Amino acid sequence: MDVTEETFATAVLERSKQVPVVVDFWAEWCGPCRQLGPVLEKAVAQRAGKVELAKVDTDRNQGLAQAFRIQGIPAVKAFKDGAVVSEFTGAQPPQAVERFLDGLVPSEADGLVAQGDEASLRHALDLEPGRADAAVPLARLLLARGQAQEAETILHNVSGSFAADGLLARIELERSGEPSVGAALSVLDSGQTESGLNLLIDAIPAAEQSRDEIRKVVVGVLDELGAESELARAARRRLATALY
User: How far is CA 177 from CA 21, 170, 173, 204, in A?
Assistant: First the structure.
């Protein structure tokens, strides 16, 4: 699809809110552009509508070339939700183009995680073992059914996830049977997040053997709340005071 300065906003920016749009900035006189063009077209066609290709002739649309700071061609920019999310310059081999497009199109595992049911989450982990956004919700489902051992096995395959570490620590805490911690976890499970966090943090000073597990549970909850959460910011301050 050829795109001009007049059609760019609709054909690329607005369209990219529904599906990723890859824009190939090129020119007739550009030899590398003629090499890259067919590679891009073939790779996009193979994705059957999951990504679209737009072509901008930089000689005829110098305003667009200037707006997107095109200094060399071919220049390829990928748009999602109206913004550039990935790009490269120069002719690339087919394998590199494939990797570029794969980064834009959701994988099968992405779709399964989005569905969120137990069967889908299990299938996602079959495809991508150790994927935190599948392992953590699946482990929660298992814990709710009392299947702590299987949940623990799944979580041990995950690395670099505060949420997974927090759930593993919770399993350890529940095994310890410490009354104050058990009560705090029950409050947390009831949906009273602030009260549950406060109770967990309050239990830290007297907890000699389980301080680190409590900390991991709290940090896991705060990670899910997000850095912008006022509740998370306040709880982090209280946690730091309780620990140090």
Answer: 54, 11, 7, 15
